[in-house]
Every structure is written in C-alpha cells, then in structure tokens.
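User: Please predict structures.

Assistant: First:
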Amino acid sequence: MSIYDIEVKTIQGETQTLASYKGKVLLIVNTATGCGFAPQFKGLQLLHDKYRDQGFAVLGFPCSQFANQEKEHDRDIVQACEINFGVNFPLFSRINVNGSDAHPLFQYLTNEARGVLGSKSIKWNFTKFLVDREGNVVKRYGSTEEPEKLEEPIKKLLAKV
C-alpha cells in the first residue's frame, strides 16, 4: 500500500484518495484552529503559495485530540481558517491522529517517520510530515518547528525531478 491509496475525506465531505497528489512534494499537518501554534497556518499558507506552481502542496488535517482545540464542525473549521489565517490550501475533514481510531493516513505517516525515541504517537497539534514526489515520508517535524524553517528541505525535494 502506498500513501496514494489511502482514502481521505475532504472538508467538503467528499471521499477521495491522495492519488491526485502523485508527483508532488507534500507537507501533511495535523491542525487545530484553537491551538497556540495556530499562527503557523500563515507560514504554511506562505509555503503553499510560494511553491505550489513547482509541485508542492500543504494538506491540513484538523484534529481535536489535544486539549480539544479544534471546532466540532468542518464548516466552522473552514471559516476559522479562511477568516483568521487566510488559508486556501487543501483541508480535510476532522480526524484522530493517535490511538486505535487514528486515521489510516496518520497510522501510515507515524509508522514511516517515528518521533522522539522511536515513538509513533503524535505529541501535539501541528506535527508535520514531509513527503517526496514518490510518496516516501522523508521527515517528521514537531509542533515547535516553524513552517519557514522547512523551506530548504522543501526546495531540495522540489529540485529532484
């Protein structure tokens, strides 16, 4: 199974796989609009805007598993992201990223790129996974890693054609 076979639900409620992102460099992030790290939405959007024409996309997956910091309804999440942070990169329906009901995408990501001391679990909102054009999970970045600091690794992956 590859990352492109995994089914996801868009924030508009449509089920799809990640196949439409084949050949792109991806930054997959578990987000929360009420989190102290939410200002990272702006940095994520800047990266998305700057590199999307070169084959890059940020994919946001709202999650409320950490201190219940995400809105309950997808429409409210979209509104908060657009109004408060100017987000227009792809957002998906709210999911769980840890535990027995973790979404298959995050089961895959955490298995491919472990955290501190080999841990699979995600510690907090705004954990980021960098994926190359072939669908390989290249690196996992913690919540405190600012999106702007990921620009060089993104540029290196985009340069590989």
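Second:
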Amino acid sequence: MESLWKLLYLLEPAPMTLIVTAVAVTFGSAFRALIHGKEMERNCDLLEASITLDRSQALMIPVMRSCSLLLMFYLFSSVSQLLTAFTAIASVSSLFFWLSPHVAYLKSQFGLADPFLSRCCSKSFTRIQGLLLLACIFIVATWLVSGHWILNNLLGISLCVAFVSHVRLPNIKICAMLLVCLFVYDIFWVFFSERFFGANVMVSVATKQASNPVHTVANSLSLPGLQFRTKKLELPVKIVFPMNLWGGASPAGNTADFMILGLGDMAVPAMLLALVLCFDH
C-alpha cells in the first residue's frame, strides 16, 4: 500500500509536466514524420530522402550509442566545446524544419505575401523562410548566452522531431528488434555499467555540462557583459524540468535539481508510431 502512495508523486507539477511533454513530443514527432513523408511523395525531386534503416543499421544504433557514451564519459571535457558548436548548428536546422509547416499554415490562413528571395540548387527560399531562419538563429544564440532549461527543451524537442522525420523504420520486425536492443542497452548502461567502469556511465554523461564557447570567446576578448553568459550548458540531448517547477529554478542550477528524460526515450516510440501512421495513410 505504501508503494501505491509513492505513485502520487507522479501527480506533482514537475513529473506530470514531464510525462505530458514526453507524450506530446512522441505523437508530434510521429505526425511530423507523416507530413514529411507526404511532402516527399509530392516533391521527391525537391526534398531530401529519408534514411530507412535495414536490420544491420538498426543493430548498429545501440553499438554506436554505446561508443558515443564511452567517448563522452572519458573525453567529454576535451570535446565539449566542439559538441556545443555542432549542437548549435544542428539545432538551427532542426528548429527551422520543425516550425516550417506551422509558419506555412499561418501564411495560408492570413494570405500573407511571400516573394522569393533566391533560388539555389533547385530549391526556393522565400522572405518568410528567411525571417524564420533568423528567428531560429536568435533562439539558439539566446540558449548559448543564457543556457535556460526552457530553451534547452525547445531545442531538444526540435532535434527529436527532425530525427524521427528523417530516420525511418521499414517494418514492425526491425522496429521490435531495435526496441529490444535498446532495452538491453538501457539496462546495462544504467544498472551494470558501474561494475565495469567505476561509475554509472549513463547518469554521468546525462548530467555533465558542456563548456560554453560563447563564454570562452567573450572571456578571451574581454567583452563586456560576461556575467550574463553562462559558463556551462546543458546539451539538448534530453528534456529537463526543475523539481520545483513553479519556483523558478536558476539556469545554472545543480543538475540534481532537475528531472531528466533522454530524447531516445521519445524518439524510438515515435518512430514506431510514425511507421503505424504510414500504414494507416
């Protein structure tokens, strides 16, 4: 009976918000993948093709993720600034991909004029798309300066949506095999990695903070306003919510004060849901 009372913890604001966000991201990613698939069918010569995983590629995902975990576990401090820069570039692209259909919908609803700015490599670029790209760059730049957890979640969600839309599973058999492999992967790295590596590798990597290259450059050039630039950043490979959700947690607060959910815990179920939606449509 006592264990049942402990489940009431899930009804608190932070756990409930985390659960609702995870479900919404999973379904949103799957439906965005469906829309992207329809766009490719209509404009196969204009849009890049998605990657469809075969059996060997699906089996390599847990292996490559394990190698990445070990690399970040041992060499994180050496590659953290490079990871931050790469993540910032990928986040701009992912945000633009995620928000483009919503902006196009609003444009059609309000009948906004959208002249072409340029045509390059068989692709057109309009004025509204240019403004959207600038907005995405601004959001990522604000995240680099502030490191706020809300912006971290926004970028993480966009990366999840882009991954699910561009990496597809061909059938239920490969999907089931991938889920089983990732299930074993999670169990090993969360519960048994400490026996082999002296620390919980999954938790250690998930709670590490990357060096902020913006702060490093500003410090080396002695730029003003350095106190407003965070030294460390939570990379958007997870969504985080402060335990005291309504208390206004500090962006530079201790990671232990946050609830964490990895993007993979949402991306893989979303890939399965996207596969089912493709069959339905």
